[in-house]
Amino acid sequence: MANYVFLNSSEWPRMPSGEAGEWRKFWRDGRSELEAKNGIPLLWWCLFGETDIVRARIIDNFDIDDPDGERENFKVESGYSEDVTYPYLVTSREQALIRLTRRRELVLRGIGEKYAPIYDGFVELMERDFGPFILVRTAGLPDPEDAESWLRETAGSMDRLEDGPTPIFESMVADFNTWQNSDPIWLLSGAGADAWPTPALASVFPNGRKPARDASDASTSDSYASSNPARSNMLPKFVVEWIGPLFVGGCTVIAYLWTRSIALGALAFVVSVALFALLVTKFNR
Question: Would you list the DSSP string of 212-266?
């Protein structure tokens, strides 16, 4: 199951607000964007600190006046109430560049000097194409409303990096070192539709990829689903957490009451679990 996160340039020191109808303008302005899969890359973490964690309402990933009514559909299908919030990261470009400069030597000591062109190219990209604010959209991660504790822990570990490598930082470096030969640009910094990676970097690290879709082309009504494709294809949360267990339990109880056989009740349990697992696998991929 793929879960996408996005690094965006923004004119606001916060997430665009669907309540204020700001997503349409956000996409129309063609703001620069990088995407990554299943987690926030190391170089993105180099931009932020613990004070940069802010919360927004999940429902506000849709403009209130979106023409397709996806804001209302999302409320019904997702199981989230309007008041549910999730954490994300946002900082000014100036502060991000200060952190990138301060953390460069420490990061390269961990991942290796051979990857300095990726780090320096990423700094140039932030300086040239991003700002005045830079944010990480985290709504595509699993259970985004519960992400604050690990976001805070990881961002805090980056703040303490100058005192020496932290366990979290060492874990990120170890993961990179394990998979570095597959696609170091993607692993460290994600990918952008046009400007990243640059042709020069792609020639040095030829596995550098481009994203399959360009989220900046998404309309206001697509700001949650299209910009977070993994979430749009997932079963609603209440189906996984409530309907599934009720289905499995119901099949088991009915089989037992009908046959008075523990063995057949157990068989019904196994078959119903397998069927529900197949359904989840089909939709949450």
Answer: SS-GGG--GGGTTTTTSHHHHTSPPHHIIIIIHHHHHHHHHHHHHHHH--HHHHH
Q: Token pair 């206001």 is at which residue?
A: 220
Query: Residue 161 and residue 47: Cα distance in Å, rounded?
Result: 13
Q: Do 62 and 247 form a contact (C-beta atoms < 8 A)?
A: no
Give the pLDDT score at 221.
Answer: 32
Residue 235's nearest CA partner among 279, 178, 198 is 279
Task: Count Cβ atoms below 10 Å from residue 208 Cβ, excluding itself.
Answer: 20
Residue 53 CA to residue 135 CA, distance in Å, equals 10
How far apart (Å, rounded) are the C-alpha atoms in residues 36 and 212? 11
* Tokens, residue 140: 């595509």
Contact 58, 144 (CB under 8 A): yes
**Over residues 81-97, mean pLDDT:** 94
Task: Give me the chain's average pLDDT, please.
Answer: 83
The phi and psi torsions of 60 (rounded to 5 degrees) equal -80, 10
Question: SS3 of 9, please?
Answer: strand
The pTM score is 0.73
Maximum pairwise Cα distance, the chain: 71
Q: Which pLDDT score, from 0 to 100, does residue 257 have?
A: 82
Q: Does the pLDDT at position 278 exceed 50?
A: yes
Distance, CA of 42 to CA of 107 (rounded, Å)? 9
**In whole angstroms, how far apart are CA 278 and each of 231, 238, 281?**
18, 17, 5
Q: Rounded mean pLDDT of 42-59? A: 96
Residue 188: per-residue pLDDT: 97
Contact 217, 26 (CB under 8 A): no
**CA–CA gap between residue 91 and residue 94 (Å, rounded):** 8
Using CA atoms, how far residue 171 sits from 122, 174, 175, 229, in Å, is 21, 5, 6, 28
